[in-house]
Amino acid sequence: MQHSQREHFWNTLIWPVLWPLLLMQATLVVLCALVVWLVGWVSPGYASWSISLWLMLVLLTGSSLNVAAFLMLVKSRAKHKEERLMQQLVELEQHTKTLAKRVAITSPRQTLTLDEPSDERPVARLAEVNNVLSSLAASIAAPSSAEAVTNETDDAKTLLDDLHHQQQQVRHLLAGRDRAREESRLKSEYLGLLQRETDALFDRLSEQLNTQVSEDCRANMLEVRERIADIRALLMNLVQHRDVPAESSDQAPVASSLRVLVVDDGPVNLMLARQMLENHGLYVEGVSSGEQALERQQQSFFDLVFMDIFMPTLNGLETTRRWREVEAAQGGRKSVLVALTANADNMGQQECLSAGLDDLLTKPYQPETLLGIITTWFPEANGASPTR
């Protein structure tokens, strides 16, 4: 750094003035030597030490004049450079004062002033400006650092608030989940209790039917037992509804070409039966009376019909007899009719088979029981129903 400063000083101030003077000095020496040689060659007798002395005095005077001219030129050039330096220094001081005032306005706590230097030397003034600029840089960086710290603190506080809020939400969700589990457990217990009570009532009615009762009483008890069987089927599906999809997924897929008709006057049982069968890709229709079933027979052919026995006006047995009469009159394929009843004793089975039913399904029934009926009567993998 110091070597480069010397080279800059030499190249800027000394050398531009020195080389013309050196050239003039060399020219003067050459002229003096030429005069001495000419005098000695023209008049050798006249050459003496006096002439040489005078020539040396002339050479010394010329050299002194060259040195004086050199020093004056250096002084002039240095003065010019100093004026430019002072001008730039004054402008730098003015800009520094302006910057200090602006910093004082934006940050009142920062009071920076550029005092008039007691030493007028440029180096001292530059040192003063440098000190002020260093203070300004520090004052500008300090608020930025403080602001950055403040922003980081705010961000951390925001993150903590969000984390606290999320923790509260998680606690609420966990509490809600626990409440839902407890409610589900209580509902399952209530449904299980209700199922046990209906099972006991169903068994009690079955025992009463085996005693000596009048025909009217028997008919009423059979109807009541049929309704209780519907309720048992509903309760069983409600209690075991979570196990139904897993069990159903293990069953072999049923061909979707089969057309199934469910005849049941109970809307809940009708809905459950349709849902069980449709979940296995079957086309299912449902009606709630024997009259509607006979109307659907005239409109379309059904491979399989689940027939509820106890229905008002036209019960399942009479509907089956009329269904078979229509098939006999039309000829062709016959539907597989399966009875849905709670009366599964020998007398009930014989009565169903005599009416034209092909099979009997006891209430309450499970999804695998329905699928077992389909597998028994329609074992073909392609879903084509056999001709009967």
List keywords for this structure.
388 residues; alpha/beta; Rossmann fold; 5-stranded parallel beta sheet; 72% helix; 6% strand; rod-shaped; disordered C terminus
What's the N-to-C terminus distance?
Answer: 115 Å
Question: What value does the average pLDDT take?
Answer: 74
Helix content: over 70%
Spans of at least 5 consecutive residues whose pLDDT stays below 50 are 242-252, 381-388
CATH architecture of the domain at 253-377: 3-Layer(aba) Sandwich
Q: What's the CATH H-level homologous superfamily of the domain at 253-377?
A: Response regulator
Overall geometric form: rod-shaped
Number of strands: 5
At the first level of CATH, the class of the domain at 253-377 is Alpha Beta
**Major beta sheet, specifics?**
5 strands, parallel
Cα gyration radius (Å): 61 Å
Alpha plus pi helix count: 10
Strand order of the largest sheet: 2-1-3-4-5
Strand content: 5-15%
**Order of helices and strands, N to C?**
HHHHHEHEHEHEHEH
Can you walk through the features of this model?
The model is unreliable at 242-252 and 381-388 (pLDDT under 50). This protein is rod-shaped. It has helices spanning 2-42, 49-106, 122-209, 215-239, 243-250, 267-278, 290-299, 316-330, 346-355, 367-377, and strands at residues 259-263, 283-287, 304-308, 336-341, 359-362. Helix 1 runs antiparallel to helix 2 (49-106) and helix 7 packs parallel to helix 8. The longest helix has 88 residues, at 122-209. The chain has a 5-stranded parallel β-sheet, with helices on both faces. It is of the alpha/beta class and 388 residues long. It is built from 10 helices and 5 strands. Among the domains are: 2-106, no CATH class; 253-377, Rossmann fold (3-Layer(aba) Sandwich), CATH 3.40.50.
